[in-house]
């Protein structure tokens, strides 16, 4: 009788502005157990404590080797310190040392979008290729880049900030302080803006009706639901977002030439409503089209667990 | 008495639309001998013959190990075939096999801008860093990307087409068929256009005088010369080009996060006239500025020999 092969388990943690998600992940990317708490985003030391508590809780029931943390902020090149975060109170905060000391486990800190890209690359939609661009469309637009099988973190750890590609000179003011960033035209926030603008102009009666008569109550999920039901204004809002996103992706593909582009994030749950206009704009705008092989555009498969799964794998191969 | 260490020599060839440049390069990047011929750009087999003749000529006088060719076109991922070239009659032309057969030497084919980037990375301006973005400003805008010490060719061999980042929605028509590409706003051709537009509007008397009274005779070198002498319209043309280039570079740095950006190509010979406005726009537009280390912006040091030197090194480490 042979012993069963021992399973190697690591813990992945995804820290965002609203929640902290932690899970025990095996080498095949399966999540054995998952826990979550509300993110104490305004208090950096409370976040560290919350991460430590979740890891300890999971470590009691599983034999965890290492911890990977995906953090919604700029992570330095040594994968220890969060230099800055737009929505969390991190300003040059060392996450790695306190987590390692409190848990006794080796830890790796990674940007959350990078961790999600890595998750889709090793266990999700981009499993068959060597290079992929992950585009995450949620409240904002984020990304991650894998080239020749390696996660590209950049010289200072802050690569793949694709939401801040400038697509309109002197365009809309972005939260980053610049004008005309892709994020302002192709995010979930932009989707809601397009829908509300149409509603205010009297061009979206179906959306207004669904929102109980109040334009301000039009939300992303409401637009998605309406578009799925065939509402013209809902479909048009996705078309506008998708157009900008496809053009941005065409620019990114000119630079990176990946084999695959993976669309993830909450907005991508709309599926073909998003994918079709993105693909059309991407194909129309890609430089050298007809003279080059074309990257495949796909939806992500790991949902909101991509970051956790990716962080766990980065911890395993730290 | 000890024998002198044998020198390892490879041949680098840079094939453009106007000339073919070939040289024998040692492992330190020094060019021992260099030859050139006019490029028979309209005849693909004549180009191959010309390359072979130059390599044979140099191989008679030097002990060449391998040949690296930088080609102004899309080179496939196996580094053999030029899939397409805008200014040369290459349409799916295998360069590698005929060169290897005719010379008896192993050969590597690489995109010319990639080869130049590699040259600056191993023997030029970016020698001290692990990751760099090379931006070549000539008639067009090209580029090359080195991350973690590796030249990034992309999944299909056509990465780093940074001139075709779209910077203006519905902007000027580019030779690639798209509208609003960076190349249309930040190339040597754009420099001349800015200067001629100013001249036509009566705002560049100094340039018109230098051009013998004819707006159509205003050229890039003339604008450079005038700007160096302090001509306001000449300086303004560089400022406009530099502004667009700096903004484009800010987008690219958001995506790639390199440690260094190297500006090369004919237009970069203007030095600070170009570098100052590029740097100002880059710093003003970089997302997350103040919260991240900042990539250094430098001029290239290898001039028009960067491609030849880079191709020779790629052949050495094939």
Integer average pLDDT of chain A: 95
CATH class group of the largest domain in chain A: Alpha Beta
Report the radius of gyration of chain A as a whole number of Å. Answer: 20 Å
Total strand segments of chain A: 13
Account of the 3D structure:
2 copies of one chain form a homodimer. Chain A is α/β, with parallel strands linked by helices and 318 residues long. The first copy, chain A, folds into 2 domains: 9-118 and 306-316, 2-Layer Sandwich (Nucleotidyltransferase, domain 5); 129-300, ATPase, nucleotide binding domain (Nucleotidyltransferase, domain 5, 2-Layer Sandwich). Chain A has 10 helices and 13 strands. Chain A has helices at 44-61, 96-103, 112-123, 183-186, 188-200, 205-210, 220-228, 232-256, 272-285, 306-316, and strands at 9-15, 19-25, 31-38, 64-71, 74-75, 81-84, 91-94, 107-111, 132-137, 141-147, 150-151, 260-264, 296-299. In chain A, the strands form 3 sheets. Chain A has a 5-stranded mixed sheet with strand order 3-2-1-4-8. In chain A, strands 11-10-9-12-13 form a 5-stranded mixed sheet, sandwiched between helices. A 3-stranded antiparallel sheet of chain A has the order 5-6-7. The longest helix of chain A has 25 residues, at 232-256. At the A-B interface, strand 10 and helix 8 of A face strand 10 and helix 8 of B.
Task: Kindly list the characteristics that best describe this protein.
Nucleotidyltransferase, domain 5; 13 strands; 22% strand; homodimer; 2 domains; 318 residues
Topology overview:
2 copies of one chain form a homodimer.
Chain A: E1 9-15, E2 19-25, E3 31-38, H1 44-61, E4 64-71, E5 74-75, E6 81-84, E7 91-94, H2 96-103, E8 107-111, H3 112-123, E9 132-137, E10 141-147, E11 150-151, H4 183-186, H5 188-200, H6 205-210, H7 220-228, H8 232-256, E12 260-264, H9 272-285, E13 296-299, H10 306-316
Parallel strand pairs in A: 1-4, 4-8, 9-12, 12-13
Antiparallel strand pairs in A: 1-2, 2-3, 5-6, 6-7, 9-10, 10-11
Helix pairs in contact in A: 1-2, 3-10, 5-8, 7-8, 8-9
């Amino acid at each position: 009788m042979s012993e069963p092969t021992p399973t190697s388990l690591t813990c992945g943690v995804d820290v965002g502005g609203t929640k902290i998600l932690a899970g025990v992940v095996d080498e095949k990317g399966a999540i054995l157990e998952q826990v979550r708490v509300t993110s104490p985003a305004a208090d950096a030391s409370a976040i560290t404590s919350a991460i430590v508590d979740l890891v300890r809780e999971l470590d009691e029931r599983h034999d965890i080797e290492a911890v990977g943390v995906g953090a919604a902020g700029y992570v330095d090149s040594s994968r220890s310190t969060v230099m800055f975060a737009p929505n969390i109170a991190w300003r040059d905060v060392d996450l790695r040392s306190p987590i390692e000391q409190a848990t006794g486990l080796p830890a790796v800190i990674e940007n959350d979008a990078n961790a999600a890209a890595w998750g889709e690359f090793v266990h999700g939609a981009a499993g068959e290729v060597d290079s992929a661009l992950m585009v995450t469309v949620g409240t904002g637009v984020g990304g991650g880049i894998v080239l020749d099988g390696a996660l590209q973190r950049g010289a200072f750890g802050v690569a793949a900030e694709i939401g801040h590609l400038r697509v309109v000179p002197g365009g809309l003011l972005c939260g980053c302080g610049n004008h005309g960033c892709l994020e302002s035209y192709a995010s979930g926030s932009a989707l809601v803006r397009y829908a509300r603008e149409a509603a205010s102009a009297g061009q979206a009666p179906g959306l207004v009706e669904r929102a109980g008569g109040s334009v301000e109550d039009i939300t992303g999920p409401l637009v998605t639901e309406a578009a799925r039901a065939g509402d013209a204004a809902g479909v048009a809002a996705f078309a506008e977002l998708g157009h900008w996103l496809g053009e941005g992706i065409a620019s990114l593909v000119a630079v990176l030439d990946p084999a695959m582009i993976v669309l993830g994030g909450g907005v991508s749950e709309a599926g073909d409503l998003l994918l079709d206009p993105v693909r059309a704009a991407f194909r129309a705008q890609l430089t050298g089209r007809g003279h080059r092989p074309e990257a495949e555009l796909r939806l992500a498969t790991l949902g909101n667990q991509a970051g956790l799964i990716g962080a766990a794998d980065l911890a395993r191969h730290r």
